[in-house]
Automatic annotation (TrEMBL), chain A:
InterPro entries reported in the protein's UniProt record: BPD_transp_1_N, MetI-like, MetI-like_sf
Membrane topology value: Multi-pass membrane protein
Annotated Pfam families: BPD_transp_1, BPD_transp_1_N
Residue ranges annotated for the ABC transmembrane type-1 domain, each copy included: 98-300
Family matches, as CDD domains: TM_PBP2
Example of a GO cellular component annotation carried by this entry: plasma membrane
Coiled coil: none
Family: Belongs to the binding-protein-dependent transport system permease family.
Name this protein carries in UniProt: Peptide/nickel transport system permease protein
Originating species: Streptacidiphilus jiangxiensis
Keywords, in A-Z order: Cell membrane, Membrane, Transmembrane, Transmembrane helix, Transport
Automatic annotation (TrEMBL), chain B:
Entry keyword set: ATP-binding, Cell membrane, Membrane, Nucleotide-binding, Transport
Name the record gives this protein: Oligopeptide/dipeptide ABC transporter, ATP-binding protein, C-terminal domain-containing protein
Main location: membrane
Record's subcellular location: Cell membrane
Species whose genome carries this gene: Streptacidiphilus jiangxiensis
Keyword Transport: yes
BP GO terms, sorted: peptide transport
SUPFAM superfamilies documented for this protein: P-loop containing nucleoside triphosphate hydrolases
Family label: Belongs to the ABC transporter superfamily.
GO terms for cellular component: plasma membrane
CDD domains: ABC_NikE_OppD_transporters
Amino acid sequence: MSVAVAVLRKVVGMAVTLLVTSFLVFSSLYLAPGDPVSFLVKGRSPSPAELAAIRKEFGFDQPFPVRYWHWLDAVLHGDFGRSYLFHESVGAVIWARLPASLLLVGVATLLIAVVGIGAGALSALRRGTRTDKGVLLLVTVGAAVPSFAAAVLLRSVFGVRLGWFPTIGNGTGLLDELHHVAMPAVALSVTFMALVTRVTRASMLDELGREHVEVALSRGVPRGSVLRRHVFRNALGPIVTVSGLLVSGMLVSTAIVETAFGMSGIGSLLVQCVDELDFQVVQALVLLVVAVFVVVNTLVDLVHPLIDPRIAAGGGAR
Amino acid sequence: MTLLSVEGLTVELPGSARPVLDAVDLSVAAGEVVGLVGESGSGKSVTARSALGLLPAKARVTGRVLVEGKDLVGADAAHLREVRTGVASMVFQDPRAGINPVRRIGDFLTEPLRLTKGWSKRQAEARALELLAAVGLPDPPRHLRQYPHQLSGGMLQRVMIAGALAGEPRLLLCDEPTTALDVSTQAEILALLGGLQRERGLGLLLITHDIELAAASCDRVYVMYAGRIVEEASAGELFGSPRHPYTRGLLGSTPPLTGPLERLRPVPGAPMSLAESAPGCAFAARCDFAEPGRCDQSPPRLLPVPGAADRSAACVRVAELPPVVATEVRS
């Protein structure tokens, strides 16, 4: 099977997944408690005729499949509807808050990659030593700390007591934004970092025990090169797989971290819009998270044959 | 000159009841093919790895391992690298496990040349092509770009041999080089190794559990049991008249090429594990000729066999044992 066909199959699979998701997202929100109309008429008590007019205006009077079809048709044309809450198009609402969240997730990803992979590799190479035990202890603690708890702890220690970092807001200008995003990024990454450290350690240990490592050493290849070119290189597969899963997990966790640090981003937007029953925005955000998840995992699948040539593209492994 | 001379090598691992190697003496001269025979866990592989300084990091090592006269026990990294890249190299048992599956054959062959000798990519690839041709692979330029999973086991073992030859070694250590292969491929690989050995005048240490194979392809054979050398003889003598009871047992348990299989006589009992030890001869518990009071007192030393030049056995009763005739071995 040629690479092009394999890629095409992945893309089609991706599209089907997104379609199914869009249906689930659309329908689940209508199963959720609360009626958007009651939000729109908040505080007033309209007559049944006025209510019917509002329903008609927003299309709530139409049967479910029709509403879904209209919504899907609009979404496919890039129109996610209007936010009840902000009186703006959903696209504009999300677009304004996306950069802050991307910065947060980006910094957290960098932290996870550098610290997580670094600590995992170090711990594998120093197996059984104090360093290894220290790393394992931190990993256990880190994996057990939820991001909201980490957020509270970080704010009280580094924000309030030491005063090193601002405790609230997004900041303006790149440096100030980075300063603001430092603690949220740590809070966001702790759990995922622990996971990546553990996976890296296990994968490296697995590879360290392989015979080809001994063969390379027996041929005089310097130890550093063996570790880089054979051990770490071969250990990449599980690390990349887990990292792919983490990216979308982090996107979801921004809801907690951004709220805890009073940041404006898509995570805090999601929380706000769920609270206020702003369905159009929630639908778009959930769809966005799922799309990122699907795209990232498709990319991971496509990258895997480059990491391990035994996996032919498209999963037709020999 | 003696290429490899192992002298009184003892290797102890923490937590094991007996040494992995116990005062092993062994030598390989240039141009000589030496066999090292024994069951799994007898210490064959550890002995061969010692010639590359590949003993386990936690092991306590005494004795000497001289490669071209220089001791590898306690040698520094620079000396080890010199030996590994230009004097001795090893052909491992299973090429599927021994060659990194995610790198190309070309990488496997050129890596030591480029990283330890500083060759350019072009130089190293030219050398790799020569090596692949030397081990009889049909299409060297294509193999260079292939991944290990695209080659058969036999072809991959040829790649492994080519890799071992990359640094122009004078000593080739072959650790069960055919065990992981199909029977039909085994003979080809052995023929290839034999040809390369003669062509290049290599000293070759062939590790195998197959005593007949050793007898057929080696000049001299050592037999190991539980970390000790129990018999040393020229291949012909060993096969014709084994002196140590263990060697007799090994020959008796080899399936005959003709005749019914029920006449096989397995060596009774099981090989001694690292968790067991014996005050006397390690083989005494399985030996037909063991004599209480003599065999279980202290480990027998490897001594010249009375009346037989150039052969030794580690058995206190070696002079008293009834002679073996070929029919008895096979009866």
